[in-house]
Amino acid sequence: MRSLETEDAALDRFHTWDDDTAGAALHACCASPAWVTRVQSGRPYRTRAELLDAAEDACRALDDRELDAALDGHPRIGDRAGGESTEARWSRQEQASVSDADAATRDALVEGNLAYEQRFGHVFLIRAAGRSPAEMLAELRRRLGNDPADERREVVDQLAQITRLRVERLLES
Question: What kind of architecture, by CATH, is found in domain 9-172?
Answer without folding.
Answer: Orthogonal Bundle (1.10)
